[in-house]
Prior knowledge:
Layout (H helix, E strand, L loop, with lengths): L1 H15 L10 E7 L8 H4 L4 E7 L7 E2 L1 H29 L5 H28 L22 E3 L5 E4 H19 L9 H24 L4 H5 L7 H19 L15 H20 L7 H29 L4 H15 L8 H26 L7 H19 L14 H33 L6 H6 L1 H6 L7
Parallel strand pairs: 3-5
Antiparallel strand pairs: 1-2, 4-5
Helix pairs in contact: 3-4, 3-5, 3-9, 4-5, 4-6, 5-8, 6-8, 6-14, 8-13, 8-14, 9-10, 9-11, 10-11, 10-12, 11-12, 11-13, 12-13, 13-14
Amino acid sequence: MKSLISTFMLLSILSFAGITAAEPAASAVEIKTLANPANPVAETIAPAVETVTIVTTDTVATPTVDKGDTAWMMVSTLLVIMMVIPGLGLFYGGLVRSKNMLSVLIQVMVVFSLVAVLWVIYGYSLAFGGEGLIIGNFDKLFLLGINVDSLADTFTENVKIPEFIFVAFQSTFAGITCALIVGSFAERIKFSAVLLFTVIWFTFSYLPIAHMVWGAGGYLLGKGALDFAGGTVVHINAAVAGLVGAYVVGKRIGYGKEAMTPHSLTLTMVGASLLWVGWFGFNAGSNLESNGGATLAFINTLVATSAAVLAWSTGEALSKGKASMLGAASGAVSGLVAITPACGSVGPMGAIIIGLVGGFLCLWGVNGLKRILGADDSLDVFGVHGVGGIVGALLTGVFTAPSLGGTGKEDFSIGSQLLIQAEGVVITLVWSGVVAYIAYKLVDVLIGLRVSEEIERVGLDVSSHGETAYHL
């Protein structure tokens, strides 16, 4: 009798909680009532029990879309746009001669705008669509199937963000990558050639590398390569294309014989500062959520950059007897580049070391390495973004280790991860280099790469765009 009463009470409670046998259900749970509930041992002594089978409904968790995450991603996207326009534009513009100031500004702005349009037409689909090893597919061509209700994954299971903001955020990465290349062949290339090269290189180099590193099924992602915000995808990728361009386009007239000093270090300082501020959106925004992971990327971006400024300035003081404003600004960018792939997986102390190493090695990159390579890389794209990207990518494999303050798993192996990181670096160097060389040669055949000697001497501002940056 007591057993029946107990069973009745249990069913009543379950019914009140909304669990009934009448609901469409999937799993059955057996609840046993002992013949003598006062003596649990009785179950083993007297196995005769009453069994009640209750059917429960399997529930599927509803995806969570947090307004804070959405707002953070919108702000991060705006910050990355500020990195390019005006940040990168002013940084590059101040470094060239005054007669080419506007040419650099318009190249940066138009290249970024061109890539943003190409991104939504087919770039996003090829980078993040499908699950191919090297490239995506055309399932999301023209953003097909994406609307205000479409959701994109984050790093937290079942936490989503609107797909439109993910598309927009990633478009800024593609845009700044292509705009970075402009600095390598500044002051002597045709505007039309810049745009045609951008279309070709974006399609055949940026998109495959982005998919391999970040896309579902991507080769490097599957291997376990770590690139939180674009050390390989953005910086090494762009730097190699720029270096190849410096070789193919050729040296500026008078290079090595005439003074080609920056015309406005003030503007370069302003540009570097805007890059630093915007980079918080670049790195912390890559966390895709406004949570602790974003704050880790945020503080790492701060301290690594500061360390690189100190490293570069110290290196200059030791080698040249004095530190320079140009060096401090360049050091800041080198630190930003170096910490980019590691910002979400290393600890702050690891970030400081990455910044210090990046600052010193990038200083060597724009001095010693540049002389060894013999290329007229106008604004030292490879020396900063190439060297800094390689340093950051490799050291990510070291300082992600939990024993060094990183967020890696307990079985994290520095040696194994370094090999994976190195493979990602080599693939990016070779892939981007080959695609860039073919693209430059193709553009040269179709429309020509370089302006005439007369136009170059007059300056691209007046000759190519009919404007001057200054009226004195």
